[in-house]
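User: Predict the structure for this protein chain, please.
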Amino acid sequence: MTATTQDQDDQAHDDLAYNVFAKSCPSRGTLEHVTGRWGGLTLGALYEGSLRFNELRRRVDGVSEKMLSQTLHALERDGLVHREAQPTNPPRVDYELTPLGRQVTERLLALIHCVEGAMDDVLAARARYDETRGAL
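Assistant: Here is the predicted structure, written as structure tokens:
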């Protein structure tokens, strides 16, 4: 990147109303919700369509009921997930991405696919590291 391009990037970043690198910026919390283990997996699972709580829990293998509930509350509060409660007996609750949630998840899925596609290289790098430094 040239100095001019870097200056333009810095200027564009300075023009933003929020700065995730500032500790008091509210965007930091949202970034944490999106990129945390359960948030990222939950958003990715919902990209395929609306799911009920237990369907989502089965899709996001390993998440506890408590963690999924907390994750969904945070994502709903951030405006990324919509919760729809049906007045049936027993109650039916569906979760789906909001338009903002879809926009964020599309970018997140690009990162997920990049990581998945690079796993052979990652595993080879780990093996090289472990050979020279010893397994941790």
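Residues 84 and 94 are 5 Å apart (CA to CA).
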